[in-house]
Amino acid sequence: MRRALCQTSSSLEAIETASPINFRHTPSDEPYRNGQTLADLWLSALAPNGSPHQLKAYFVDYYSFLKQAVFDSGFRNFDLIPDNLMLDSDGTINPIDQEWETADLAFTPDVAFCRGVFYFLLRFSRRLDMVDQARQFGPCHRDFLFSTAEWVGIDVDQSVNTFFRIEKQFRESTLECYATVEPESLLHRRFGDPEVAHLKWLQIEKFGTPLVEDIGPAVNTLFLPANSGRAGASVSLSTFCSDASKCVLFIFFPKQFGNPRFESLRVCASSLSNRLTFSIPLDMKKLSIVSSL
What we know:
The chain is of the alpha+beta class. The protein has nine helices and 14 strands. A hairpin with a 4-residue loop joins β13 and β14.
């Protein structure tokens, strides 16, 4: 998940009057570093000629680094994920591309570890599909995350649930528009299963201008692992509209899952940023036809 669209400062200031923001954007120029990322090392240890003992050592080193880098007060680096950490010649881990900081006291080294492993699984999912060692803990991404967290002595359930909460808050605080499958649903993805479901959604403002000028409303596609879709998935959408009372959202479900049903639907509108947030946990196995809103 790349965060390319950030709210303007005026929007952030307006929202901050309603509730404190625990994140701040701190882009900066940094010197080029040559070397391997931590993600590269993890992938090499998972390769057919890799060492399981070396893999565990890499995760232990990562957790040790986080215990030094994630301190107890003030703002601290948030994107301490494996492909944003580079090792120099003596093995020292150096953060790169650190554009976000958080002051959330619940963002502990344990939570940072869970976030880092989650993003490793997400960003390298296709490569991991071809690696047998990735399945050593079980068939799903969740098995990999929980097992590696137990390696370093983390209270997995508490830390993973805190990660889910902070990640949701981060997304809502830093992105104006997004459509995403929640992390707890993505962790149901099976290694080696390339099948995905295509959830399409279309936003139209009645009696207004098209969302894409001179083209008409754009149909957006959200991809989710088929295994997550079969079990039921939580999906969040956030979008802008000029007049919430005239905004219509259509959601189109993949036919291969049969007739879907909304387990629950939460719609929130913010007058400060004109943002509508649709939080939609979906159970695609239960029968009740819902094809549009």
